Amino acid sequence: MSQFLKHAVDLAKMVEGQTGVNPPVGAIVVKEGRIVGLGAHLQRGDKHAEVQALEMAQEKAKDATIYVSLEPCSHYGTTPPCVEKIIEYGISKVVYAVKDTTLMSDSDDILNEAGIEVEFSYNEEAAQLCNDFFKAKKNGKPEVTVKVSCSLDGKQANDNGQSQWITNRSVKQDVFNLRHKHDAVLTGRETLIADDPQYTTRIENGKNPVKVILTKTGDIDFDLKIFSDMTTPILIYTENKALTSTLPQVKIIYMENSNIANILEDLYLRGVGKLLVEAGPTITSTFIETKEFNKLIIYYAPKVIGGSGKYQFYSTDNVFELSEVQNFEIVNSRMLENNLKLELRKK
């Protein structure tokens, strides 16, 4: 792969988690072996990566090559089609790493008809950034990562509800980075009562995610720490019409049927493209059983807790035949001091 295309992919990786329902994209304009323009899609509704790179290059873009992590768009959304800007600036060649399966028309044909050479150079890293976006756009639901911190026997707490801290400080820091890369973090009322979490990033210049709380009953204590941050929006989904709040950052969303699918569809319409689930066994099990997730991340501490399994991270009323159980592919694993992080995808 060209080093310039790799740079474009690296730019896309840098803005992962801050583009909402849009994909993270990076672009590099190269003229006579020199980078003359670069750009990344910084947030939803902002200029696309190609436009930023072209505007930086200005007249140097004429007869230059543009390298893009994702096939340039050819439709009108919140911004005009990128293919039009590429033609306008006189680019001679476009190289991109991933085909955009959501495009309404073929960008290659449009660019070829304008006399621009197009090269598709597949890159696996870029594809991993985009594949979940394609699914999310098709289904009208966010990309969902379910995160679990547990013991070797799968407990998020002992039978008395003690859960702080099963995993170590390195795991906590890694979770802060996870939150930074997601638009919103979702939890339930029981987790708020048990742990009183804040769901912030606590990293330098980190982006705090929107906080999403699920409570069918609407039994909420507004004195909890999560409500002390007045700068980050909090969405509360409930089936209780009587639930109200005077806090300016809190929006209460009443749903007659607040199931996971309905909530995800509503979050996507509100601009949440990447959602992190950090909850207790009930909500975690619901996401896994309904298969409403893209990625499962498990942080294992080298401990066994035992007990009845009251806080087992995955528990169902159904007993499945082994031939029917969900299977996963381990896509990444690494040690965080003495704890193990596993990243898994459904097979």
TrEMBL record:
Presence of the UniProt keyword Transmembrane in the record: no
Binding site residues for Zn(2+): H48, C73, C82
GO biological process, one term: riboflavin biosynthetic process
Record keywords: Hydrolase, Metal-binding, Multifunctional enzyme, NADP, Oxidoreductase, Riboflavin biosynthesis, Zinc
Molecular-function annotations in GO: 5-amino-6-(5-phosphoribosylamino)uracil reductase activity; diaminohydroxyphosphoribosylaminopyrimidine deaminase activity; zinc ion binding
Cofactor or coenzyme needed: Zn(2+)
Cofactor note as given: Binds 1 zinc ion.
Keyword match Lipid metabolism: no
Positions annotated to bind NADP(+): W165, T191, D195
Pathway it works in: Cofactor biosynthesis; riboflavin biosynthesis; 5-amino-6-(D-ribitylamino)uracil from GTP: step 2/4; Cofactor biosynthesis; riboflavin biosynthesis; 5-amino-6-(D-ribitylamino)uracil from GTP: step 3/4
EC number(s) recorded for this UniProt protein: 3.5.4.26, 1.1.1.193
Role: Converts 2,5-diamino-6-(ribosylamino)-4(3h)-pyrimidinone 5'-phosphate into 5-amino-6-(ribosylamino)-2,4(1h,3h)-pyrimidinedione 5'-phosphate.
Family (UniProt): In the N-terminal section; belongs to the cytidine and deoxycytidylate deaminase family.
Protein name: Riboflavin biosynthesis protein RibD
